[in-house]
Amino acid sequence: MTEERLPVRKVKVTALCELCHGRKAVMKRPKNLQKLCKECFYNVFETEIHNTITDAELFKPGDVVAIGASGGKDSTVLASVLKTLNERYNYQLKLVLLSIDEGIKGYRDDSLATVKRNQAQYEMPLEIVSYKDLYNWSMDEIVACAGMRSSCTYCGVLRRQALDRGAAKLGINHIVTGHNADDVAETVLMNILRGDTARLEKSTTIVTQSTGSPIRRSKPFKYTYQKEIVLYAHYKKLDYFSTECTYAPEAFRGTTRELLKSLEAIRPSCIMDIIYSGEHLTLKPKKKKITPKYKNQKKVNDEVEVNADGSVSLNKEFKDAGLEMNRAKVSIENNASIDGAAKLSKTLEQLSF
Amino acid sequence: MAIKVKVEFLGGLDVISSGVREHKLSVPLEEGEATLKDLVDYITKTIITDPKDIPVFIEDDTVRPGILVLINDTDWELEGGEEYVIESGDVFTFTSTLHGG
Ligand SMILES: [Zn+2]
């Protein structure tokens, strides 16, 4: 008898879920390296967010809450999970999608289409507030006029304000955003690397509220890993938008993000660890103000500064220098703002945060 | 014999292949021997349109941190990572977690 040779095949060892011990594990949690099946992953993911919400007492029954919705993965998953939890645990919340149209062609126009689909998918009202309506200038026009330099930081301040105005318009005083654990760790790391101890303390708080502003902001994903958000969106086949903004992010943030990703590859728990460290760092009570000479000129590089009352404003130097330099360029390149540079300069200077 | 697999670039990673998200490939490698590492090398050489985009996908000779890799919808960390032996019919999904929040 001839022995028939079967092709040698490596037997694939599939791990079982460490929670239900019944189904095949499909993912490994970065937080604790636990291997989970899809169903247990959904369950753990949603329950952890529920626990974050209840531990921090983010909501009361009857609250109307605006979800800052960009169409990207974080806010799309946030809308989906909040809808699920609101129904499962009877939070009795009224959820509204609030989107900002910065006026960035090829980026925001497409992502807003995603938000409009989300509006139907999650059966939530949608409000869109645009820079153009609010400030009379779209982000594209501002960049054409003021240049690319730090447009990202700049845009962030304007967006924050736009979200507040949008919420106020709807009579809502609570905005939830999709900022996740990776974002929080990144901010902690950035503030440490810049020696910005004033912002370091605030960077891990789950609820923030500016003095004098009736609007609270909170981050239900504060302890939720980016990887799990992406996996959740993928397995649940959520409809999200993933094109990068036309304008490059601030270089320092980009580099910090890459550093964090490299660290996470070696030690996945580092994201939670950095947040933990951030939460436990408290500043010594301030003695008399002795400002070291090199810090005399406060944050010359920062275009955005924090005022004594906690509100934010654009640095005057930036407004003047940045805009002046580019006036000539604008009149040639941008028809829409031929007479506009001066007007933009004026508009931006009138902004108070 | 070529190994027939499907490769997907999601989460904005399709920028490295001229916006094409799904690729059906006949990989000229030996089935039973070729690993995911070999496939990644093959992808880098043949699919990435502009060599300037290679660092978007590869860092330090491996898939860049921040790109989530799924093998038949399972986290590659559970399947041996780069050492996974590829088979005809496999689906490999590369999703950027870095693109827009
Ligand atoms: Zn399970």
Automatic annotation (TrEMBL), chain A:
<keyword id="KW-0808">Transferase</keyword>
<dbReference type="InterPro" id="IPR000541">
    <property type="entry name" value="Ncs6/Tuc1/Ctu1"/>
</dbReference>
<keyword id="KW-0820">tRNA-binding</keyword>
<dbReference type="InterPro" id="IPR056369">
    <property type="entry name" value="CTU1-like_ATP-bd"/>
</dbReference>
<dbReference type="GO" id="GO:0032447">
    <property type="term" value="P:protein urmylation"/>
</dbReference>
<feature type="domain" description="tRNA(Ile)-lysidine/2-thiocytidine synthase N-terminal">
    <location>
        <begin position="65"/>
        <end position="251"/>
    </location>
</feature>
<dbReference type="InterPro" id="IPR014729">
    <property type="entry name" value="Rossmann-like_a/b/a_fold"/>
</dbReference>
<comment type="pathway">
    <text>tRNA modification; 5-methoxycarbonylmethyl-2-thiouridine-tRNA biosynthesis.</text>
</comment>
<dbReference type="GO" id="GO:0002143">
    <property type="term" value="P:tRNA wobble position uridine thiolation"/>
</dbReference>
<dbReference type="GO" id="GO:0016779">
    <property type="term" value="F:nucleotidyltransferase activity"/>
</dbReference>
<dbReference type="GO" id="GO:0002144">
    <property type="term" value="C:cytosolic tRNA wobble base thiouridylase complex"/>
</dbReference>
<dbReference type="GO" id="GO:0005739">
    <property type="term" value="C:mitochondrion"/>
</dbReference>
<protein>
    <recommendedName>
        <fullName>Cytoplasmic tRNA 2-thiolation protein 1</fullName>
        <ecNumber>2.7.7.-</ecNumber>
    </recommendedName>
</protein>
<keyword id="KW-0819">tRNA processing</keyword>
<keyword id="KW-0963">Cytoplasm</keyword>
<comment type="function">
    <text>Plays a central role in 2-thiolation of mcm(5)S(2)U at tRNA wobble positions of tRNA(Lys), tRNA(Glu) and tRNA(Gln). Directly binds tRNAs and probably acts by catalyzing adenylation of tRNAs, an intermediate required for 2-thiolation. It is unclear whether it acts as a sulfurtransferase that transfers sulfur from thiocarboxylated URM1 onto the uridine of tRNAs at wobble position. Prior mcm(5) tRNA modification by the elongator complex is required for 2-thiolation. May also be involved in protein urmylation.</text>
</comment>
<keyword id="KW-0694">RNA-binding</keyword>
<dbReference type="InterPro" id="IPR020554">
    <property type="entry name" value="UPF0021_CS"/>
</dbReference>
<dbReference type="Pfam" id="PF01171">
    <property type="entry name" value="ATP_bind_3"/>
</dbReference>
<dbReference type="InterPro" id="IPR011063">
    <property type="entry name" value="TilS/TtcA_N"/>
</dbReference>
<comment type="similarity">
    <text>Belongs to the TtcA family. CTU1/NCS6/ATPBD3 subfamily.</text>
</comment>
<dbReference type="GO" id="GO:0000049">
    <property type="term" value="F:tRNA binding"/>
</dbReference>
From TrEMBL, chain B:
<protein>
    <recommendedName>
        <fullName>Ubiquitin-related modifier 1</fullName>
    </recommendedName>
</protein>
<dbReference type="GO" id="GO:0034227">
    <property type="term" value="P:tRNA thio-modification"/>
</dbReference>
<feature type="cross-link" description="Glycyl lysine isopeptide (Gly-Lys) (interchain with K-? in acceptor proteins)">
    <location>
        <position position="101"/>
    </location>
</feature>
<feature type="modified residue" description="1-thioglycine">
    <location>
        <position position="101"/>
    </location>
</feature>
<keyword id="KW-0963">Cytoplasm</keyword>
<dbReference type="GO" id="GO:0002098">
    <property type="term" value="P:tRNA wobble uridine modification"/>
</dbReference>
<dbReference type="InterPro" id="IPR015221">
    <property type="entry name" value="Urm1"/>
</dbReference>
<dbReference type="InterPro" id="IPR012675">
    <property type="entry name" value="Beta-grasp_dom_sf"/>
</dbReference>
<comment type="pathway">
    <text>tRNA modification; 5-methoxycarbonylmethyl-2-thiouridine-tRNA biosynthesis.</text>
</comment>
<comment type="function">
    <text>Acts as a sulfur carrier required for 2-thiolation of mcm(5)S(2)U at tRNA wobble positions of cytosolic tRNA(Lys), tRNA(Glu) and tRNA(Gln). Serves as sulfur donor in tRNA 2-thiolation reaction by being thiocarboxylated (-COSH) at its C-terminus by the MOCS3 homolog UBA4. The sulfur is then transferred to tRNA to form 2-thiolation of mcm(5)S(2)U. Prior mcm(5) tRNA modification by the elongator complex is required for 2-thiolation. Also acts as a ubiquitin-like protein (UBL) that is covalently conjugated via an isopeptide bond to lysine residues of target proteins such as AHP1.</text>
</comment>
<keyword id="KW-0833">Ubl conjugation pathway</keyword>
<comment type="similarity">
    <text>Belongs to the URM1 family.</text>
</comment>
<dbReference type="GO" id="GO:0005829">
    <property type="term" value="C:cytosol"/>
</dbReference>
<dbReference type="InterPro" id="IPR016155">
    <property type="entry name" value="Mopterin_synth/thiamin_S_b"/>
</dbReference>
<dbReference type="GO" id="GO:0032447">
    <property type="term" value="P:protein urmylation"/>
</dbReference>
<keyword id="KW-1017">Isopeptide bond</keyword>
<keyword id="KW-0819">tRNA processing</keyword>
<dbReference type="Pfam" id="PF09138">
    <property type="entry name" value="Urm1"/>
</dbReference>
